[in-house]
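## Example pair
The file below holds two records. Each record gives the amino-acid sequence first, followed by its structure token line.
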Amino acid sequence: MSQTDAAPWPPERSAWGSPPSPRYESLAARFRPIFARIREGAVARERERRLPEEAVGWLRAARFGALRVPEAEGGFGASLPDLFGLLAELAQADSNLPQALRNHFGFAEDTVSSPHDARRARWIERLAEGDLFGGAWSETGNAVVGTFETRIHRRGDGWGLTGRKYYTTGSLFADWIDVVGTGEAGEETSVVVSARAPGVAILDDWDGFGQRLTASGTATFADVPAIGEPLPTEVRFAYGTAFFQAVHLATLTGIARAAADAVTGAVRIRDRTYSHAAGARPSADPQVLQVVGRVHALAYAAGALNARAAEAVQRAYEARVANLPEAQAQAITIASEIELAQAQTVLTGLVLDAGTILFDALGASATSSRHALDRHWRNARTIASHNPRIFKDRIVGDFAVNGTEPPFQWKIGRVLPAAS
């Protein structure tokens, strides 16, 4: 048995903490057999750089993407703490999957929290059926911060989409793609297109050293017909940045737990030791056990932060659907953004540490590529590079000292020189 084949203790012996809601266990029971199947092939997929298309198919068939759709509308009615708890469990099996579904759940959240109208009804039905949504927002090349070269334009009696996007995470697995671009009046707006429409081309050209199986590459759109009317981004859910960051935190939490599983299983079966070790086997060596315990503690702390952050996003969601007075809703949204920024800077460090020190409990053979134990650090480091944490501490400090509101949309690109 290899170091990556060693199974963790049964879930009932886990010490990750209490579930986020009374109904969480019944929700999780529906998907845990799928998570287990996903986990079985995770290392092989990593070594072979094989996209998890089969695994996505299992999740689609189980309607995992309908978690946030209310039960009365055909979904599972999961709360946000439930959702982020399940995403952490999925990430524990394979961290590529929750990131590949990040844009899907962002679109689902915006839809679920929207006013009841024809647009919401259309997409709620598709979500309840299990359809998956990808996203195409960021651009490379000559894009300027705050603008998009992608155009949303008139196309006969409807609308069309022309442009090129990058970081289109999960779109290769999706049925529909949510795309942001520039409208005819220069406004920032969005449309949904079929992932299989003529003129859509999606490439798996992501070349990062981590999260390599998320299908996060280039998408091009050549006069692609849009579904329905464009939706201005300014009317979409204001807590979107907090939500998208919370998905990252859940994924990082799962990575830390996977690292804890890996080092625990490897130490349990390892029978080689050092001449100067404190035990005849690593499983009886107090120094090795201390490392294992430390990795578990880091994973536990990450989970606690993930759970607290999920509660903050849930409050922002409740403010939106309750149509609270604008000032109160804004305060809740700001609070969720600040809470997520604080959680991000600390949780990221915990998970990176877990992915590093697990090797202190193992021998040099643990660095063999066949075990792929390095994927935990690589994947965590890659996720941590999105929405850079160095800016988050400053944003929190500026809010604390000066009351400066945090930014509610992250954009990348070049900054034009100031006019003379």
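Second record, same layout:
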Amino acid sequence: MPDQPAKETAISGIQLNLRIISTVIFNFSSYLTIGLPLAVLPGYVHDVMGFSAFWAGLVISLQYVSTLISRPHAGRYADLWGPKKVVIFGLFGCLLSGLFYGAAALTSDNAVLSLTLLCVGRLILGIGQSFAGTGSTLWGVGAVGSLHIGRVISWNGIFTYGAMAIGAPLGVVLYRYGGLMLLAETIVAIIVVSVALAWPRPAVKGSKGKPIPFRDVLGKILPYGLILAMASAGFGVIATFITLFYQDKGWEGAAFALTLFSAAFVGTRLLFPNAINRRGGLFVAMVCCAVEALGLFLVWGAWDPLIAKTGALLTGAGFSLVFPAIGVEAVKVVPTQNQGSALATYTAFMDLSLGITGPLAGLIMSVAGVPVVYLLTALLVCLAFYMILRLKQPNRAAA
């Protein structure tokens, strides 16, 4: 990636953060549309509509599948159209999902039609989120310069998980008072406001160079994506299975362990906003993987709830900066005109990892017990540490 103009460094910390927030706020909106129905739709499909747990799970999973499939396309179009157009396109996808939820509510007397409308809405939501999320990140990078790409990715993550944390309980409240229709109307209203705010904002200029083929982008990104995938497994097993781990041990307080994990994740990003620029992405990622692996080892060997909570906290703190730290290094290996494709492809490895981790860890649990999952995941994060070490070796030789 070419060096950025020196004027980037003249932006004060507060101005820098405000510029970033003014663009990643649109990713916050897109993730609100994910969080709002997250805790509602499974119960609605199973208990109200009368479908099996399989269909309840499928309705949720469809969004993640379409997100994974559409991410590379989102990146390619961000490179071709520019981030602003991609963000607005993605927001309209989120708006359409709300309209399909409303249509499903109106056709609730016809269960099959209503379920079909929900499924279509979830598929469209996945596409909308991948475009809005990828575009928001690149819009932020264009606003402050690629020198600060790590900070942009960090803020994007904070807003992502913040939206999910706010959206799920808010969605339950809305559903309780107005059913699926009120939920749908709220989603549409959020997106209408977001589009109205995004439309007048200035676009950023894209690169005029000829992009390299997607196959070449994937080849260059592959080692970085694999590292992210392995590190993401630690996030997956804490977020998904810590409750089962506590039940297996006969302990209480799993919810607080999740709170510690989330607080450490967000807190680390807020406390160390300049760590990647100062120490380099690979160094920060190595430290983070070491901390994450230590946390997972502690959860595996925990003989006391306090040890497990400490492990969850360390896992959250460690995983927090892996995504931006490795992401900074990943975009350096492609031309500027392929930044969108690079970021989207890189992010898809996390989507894929989280999609695989759940069923695979569940299978391992059924055979070897719950704690073993945390041991194996810790070893996987150690492998990610080793891969980062190998990536650093050419840098050492050059030095």
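Notes on the second record: The domain at 10-198 is CATH 1.20.1250.20 (Growth Hormone; Chain: A;). DSSP finds 14 helices and no strands in the chain.
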